[in-house]
Amino acid sequence: MEAKRRLWKLNDIDQWELFNQVKGEEDIQPTSLITATKNEAASQEKAGTKASSQLFYISKTKQEVKGATIYTPKGYGIVQNVIPEKNIITVKINNEIIDFERSEVSNDILIEFIHVQEGAKRSEKISFPIQSTVQDISDRISSQYDDPTLIARLFFKGKELELSNDTLDKLGIIQGSKILVMKKSGKVYSVYRFTQVLSGWALGHNSFEGISFSTSNDIMVTGIGLYTPMHQISGVIATVKLIQGDSPDAFPDCTAEAELRISGIPNAKIQKVSFDKPVLVKEDEIWTIAVVISMSSDTQSIFGCQSYYGNLGNPTILGEADVTFTFSNCYGKRQKSQTNIYAGQIPEIYYYPS
Asked: Which of 37, 140, 304, 322 has an alpha carbon within 20 to 30 A of 334's alpha carbon?
């Protein structure tokens, strides 16, 4: 019987798959990564642990070129040479040059996460590319929480990992490393842009409201506030986009949608719209909030739609937790924002310190 080898290779759509190869055969039959993941999940279920539903979470380029970092049976190393026809990768580890078969090295690190909460414990295994950072790991784990204000505290070898751009190799995280995970709840703060609230802001079909901002500190943005309609009306939908940069036309980092309604609370004129997960906004980076208000044709033509709006805004405002916000007008190529620094919609931004 001819021996089989299992090799990681790129498939036709540039995704990594595990292949079975029989020596002497030119054809290579793929073993689906989905099947492998399901088998691992089933085996972990029997062991009383919960497997990750997405083994390869972060999509980053897997480089096998000279100078790239790679993981080997002897630890992390730097790729010196790649010989595809022989399936050989030459790696430098601690000043020693070693040849490895492709199946012996990896661009991914499988980490076991031990979740501890209220005395209960569960385990899951997630594979991260070598280039992943502590921030990447925290974002992945925190994305599991229903409450967007919760973030993951990560402990490795008894010490809490600081949210940083340090990569796995710098942290000494290797295949099979265990990381303890605990939830961290933080107070959500806000910044309010205006000193006066007025009525009569006209909203038409596909009205565009936008504002750009930067901050004096790193923060995690959880959502924004929008002024509600003045009268009870249905079918007014706000699509909110948070975009890095000053262009509202760029691809958003996060999107949320909500139907604007009058609150049952007296004098409440602001409706909170939350993102599915917090977005990191770094100090002095420019970000844009772009809001498109849509409504049914009946709502627009028969009733019209007017909302409350803010007035007497300022370019620079000190928000809670001593975070200074600097606001600027945003200009789209296809649409012009009705909202500006001094008047309009988007009265509040919700956040917590990073």
From this structure: 304
For residues 280 and 151, the answer to whether their CB atoms sit within 8 Å is: no
- Indicate the burial class of 47 (C-beta count within 10 angstroms; 0-12, 13-18, 19 or more): exposed
**Per-residue confidence band for 27, with pLDDT thresholds at 50, 70 and 90:** very low
Could you tell me if residue 327 is inside a domain?
A: yes
Read off the CATH number of the domain in which 343 is found: 2.60.120.820
Torsion of CA 326, 218, 189, 194, to 10 degrees: 10
Nearest to 20 by CA among 33, 32, 7: 7
User: Could you tell me if residue 300 is inside a domain?
Assistant: yes
Q: What is the SS3 assignment for 50?
A: coil
Dihedral pair phi/psi, residue 273, rounded to 5°:
-120, 115
Question: Given a cut of 60, is residue 216 above it in pLDDT?
Answer: yes
Q: Is 104 helix (H, G, I), strand (E, B) or coil?
A: helix
For residue 343, what pLDDT band results from cuts at 50, 70 and 90? very high
**How many helices (DSSP H) and strands (DSSP E) are in the chain?**
4, 25
* Inside any domain, residue 60: no
* Rounded CA separation 34/230 (Å): 51
Q: Is the pLDDT of residue 98 over 80?
A: yes
Total structural domains in the chain?
Answer: 1
Let me know if residue 313 belongs to a domain. yes
Percent of the chain with pLDDT over 70: 78
Q: Are 115 and 101 in contact (CB under 8 A)?
A: no
Phi, psi of 238 (to 5 degrees): -105, 125
Note down the domain range covering 225: 189-353
| H/E segment holding residue 38 | helix 33-46
